[in-house]
Design goal:
Blueprint: H1 5-21, E1 45-51, E2 67-74, E3 77-83, H2 88-100, E4 120-125, E5 128-134, H3 145-171, E6 179-184, E7 197-204, E8 210-215, E9 224-228, E10 244-247, H4 252-258, H5 261-267, H6 270-294, H7 299-310
Parallel strand pairs: 1-10
Antiparallel strand pairs: 1-2, 2-3, 3-4, 4-5, 6-7, 7-8, 8-9, 9-10
Helix pairs in contact: 3-4
Length: 312
């Protein structure tokens, strides 16, 4: 296995980020969505999972480094789209060959990256396969435009709806079990730049959905966003957030939706500023009357003050 100076630097940086994140140990473990392991299909629901980061390259060589999955369950039929799909069987075969030839490089086996165009679609009816379409590795292609348009439309609408809910929870932070923390990221000895902060925010809806977002590298951009409901729905042991899970996002269109969440929570949203300004407009009218009510001069002091004025 090859590792140069850049690899060592990446490991050091990863360790520093882990040290900062350990103050709030949010479990970011996950399992890629597969229909075989979906716990139930009797209720309509949607889940989206997007992974562009591997926790430990040494351990996760068998884990796709860039993959997005959109799961739709409706009327007991399941639709699973995958973007950045690589056939695990072919990847494993190539891994064994390269290992025998001593040409294995950490996680270089997964050739397809997320590009916003699905490479895989599986449709089942009560777990019975109805249709399966995927692009073979030899062809640099995607599914038809009809599938792509549908996938992008549903994915973006789904993510945006949850972003809107989270913003509402941020604005109503006093009633949403809102939590936020900023932890200084340890710097290397030669780093004389400004201190950066690992920032996380979490909130909960009245029906128990837990929202979480983080900026782990201190660049002011939210790259991880999740929504989960502890209702027993999953696709295997430790499958991760069961509604929405975006881990270490690198997609510009997703960034446009989630990128400012932690920054807005820390600095305050425009909506919160409007609410506060409205409160101050009301206080501007009420505080003078309040001062007249709570600040009273006793009668003797008032009499002396009046006599002093009259004597002038």
């Amino acid at each position: 296995m090859f590792r140069g100076k850049s690899g060592k630097a990446a490991i050091v940086l990863s360790l520093l980020l882990v040290m900062a994140a350990s103050v709030y140990s949010k479990d970011l473990s996950y399992r890629e969505i597969t229909l075989d392991d979906v716990s139930r299909y009797s209720e309509d629901r949607i889940a989206y999972q997007q992974i562009e980061y591997v926790i430990d390259p040494e351990v996760h060589q068998k884990q796709d480094t860039s993959s997005a999955s959109l799961l739709i369950i409706k009327d007991k039929q399941m639709y699973l789209f995958k973007d950045g799909y690589d056939d695990p069987k072919i990847v494993e075969q190539n891994r064994i060959i390269r290992e025998m030839e001593n040409r294995l490089v950490v996680n270089d086996m997964w050739s397809r990256a997320i590009d916003g165009k699905p490479d895989y679609l599986l449709i089942t009816d009560r777990r019975v396969e109805v249709q399966k379409k995927f692009i073979v590795a030899e062809k640099n292609d995607n599914l038809g435009q009809r599938y792509t348009d549908f996938y992008i439309k549903m994915r973006d609408a789904f993510v945006q709806k949850h972003v809107n809910i989270f913003r509402g929870l941020i604005i109503n932070r006093k009633d949403s079990d809102f939590k936020m923390d900023r932890v200084p990221i340890p710097k290397t000895i030669r780093d004389e730049g400004p201190t950066k902060y690992f920032t996380y925010i979490a909130a909960k809806t009245k029906d128990g959905q837990v929202y979480y977002a983080e900026d782990s590298d201190g660049d002011g951009i939210t790259e991880t966003f999740s929504v989960e409901l502890p209702d027993g729905f999953h696709w295997g042991s430790k499958s991760g957030p069961n509604i929405l899970f975006i881990l270490k996002n690198k997609q510009e269109n997703i960034k446009a939706m989630i990128g400012t969440l932690t920054k807005e929570a820390y600095e305050g949203t425009a909506e919160e500023e409007k609410i506060i300004n409205k409160q101050f407009n009301q206080l501007d009218k009420e505080i003078p009357a309040l001062m007249d009510d709570i600040i009273r001069m006793d009668s003797d002091t008032e009499r002396i003050l009046n006599e002093a004025k009259d004597s002038k």
